[in-house]
Fold each of these.
Amino acid sequence: MNIIDGKKVSGEILEELKNTIKANNLDLTLGIIWVGNDEGSKIYINNKIKRCDSIGIKTKLYHLESETSEKELLDLIDSLNNDSLINGIILQSPVPSHIDIIKCFNSINPNKDVDGFSNVSVGNNYQNRPSIIPCTPKGIMKLFDYYNIDLKGKNVCIINRSNIVGKPLLPLLLERDATVNVCHSKTKDLAFWTRNADIIISAIGKPKIITAEMIKDGAIIIDVGISRIDGKISGDVDFENVKEKVSYITPVPGGVGPMTVAMLLDNLVEISMR
């Protein structure tokens, strides 16, 4: 069993980005829009700001009240699109229910869309054209590369169909010649699909729902899920009972999570170097 150490890999990537920024004398600012007061969002935003500071990227946070109208948000995005001092824009999710987040994502200039959520980025990804890849899928693919995990001919089971993880992962895996099944909350007999998978990528957010009986010997497990049990962070996979059965596995925390933030900054630097 090998632990896929996302913390280690992301640290190396951040150091490379820091050197790239310094070598090219890049002056980068990330605009972060946060609507409302979701506590989870606060933690994620603080983490992003901390990582930006560590490699020489400036940040500008726009914290809006929950009552902010969709038009006001769109006006802010438009102003940041036209602000030459802002190199990348992210809209932190979730947003209040009266705001159409997809509409807002699509209002972000594709050349500043560091999350890769706009229609332009999504379409380019599915057509295998140069595009900004959403951060979590990009981080997963980087981990496969770092650990020399060959995807060709592998049966991959994605347990997630969101616009953030499952859907953007699909074309990336297909491009590497993997055979992909996408499972979700309405899938019948989930264990049937997981037991036949060489690689399982789970982003359900339900603690320890993937058990040892659902996994074949030597499988590779990428656990994207995050939950809390009695104050402790847990993934979708029953790590302690699964780890001796698999060939590779990501821990939670310390697996995919650090890669997601690193890929956000990687996308920002990529955009600035075009």
Amino acid sequence: MGDVSTPSVAPERFRDALALWASGVTVITADSPDGPQGMTAASFSSLSLDPPLVLVCIDHRAYSHDRLVAAPGFAVHVLGREQEDLSNRFARAGDEKFAPDDWSTGAFGAPVLPLGVARLTCAHHAALDGGDHTILVGRVTEIEIGDQPPLLYWDRGYRSVAG
């Protein structure tokens, strides 16, 4: 554990600095007793090659937090440049995110959205405390790779790779 007497930076300064970190954009989906759940997440990363693990950080206040963390598995959709609409739709709270004709049911009952850059199917591996977030760790059981360039998020806006 760190020294709690050491002062932290101001939250606004922290957010401003992290906004300058370019990241890919993902949508995380899972099944729940309340129906399909999903949210846009930029805090996604690989964790381990052996076993193949990824992590996604979910704010405790997120509408789908409890249902995503409790699911036996989930899907990570790495969005392509043409999928900004999906990112925006899944960034809002509520259950009206899933259009009837743009998803199917995958492993663990997780909703599967159209393929962009990649899609990873994950079995729930662990849920760890991460301050005001839960670090959801998934063991990758399946991967599909698309042919789109990625959708990026940088300086509070969507970007794409030049070229």
Amino acid sequence: METIGTFLKRSRLARGMSLGEVARATRIPSQSLERIEADHFDDLPGEVFTRGFLKAYASAVGLSPDEVLGRYTAGRRIVSIAPLRIAAPIAKAGGRRFGVAIAFVLLLLLFTLALSIVMRPRGYDRPQELSVKDLSANPCGQCPVGSTRAV
């Protein structure tokens, strides 16, 4: 069976096109086109770029891009790469409960701290009646100074 590189080169020569003309028409570097015609696909940037180059090359020389990609896929050693399944770590139910309990305790501590800050008594905002006065001159605190009212 004819390789994809020789098939594309034969099609290009049958149309009377040079490699430079195909490079200008497809905007693919000449070195990449030479690698395609030599079947050195591993030297190209990647599988996605290789498929794009093949589709552009096929269109430039008047071939069906689907036919060219079909030939390429059939001729490759690795048709497709299946991703490996990575097993998800199994979470323990007890471990999750422990984490929730820790989060609950931390939230409770933060709530208690915020409440203690809000409820803390302040001396400057107490009413005049509750503030500390010097009671040595007036033991009653309500009688005018100098009155003789007994306590």
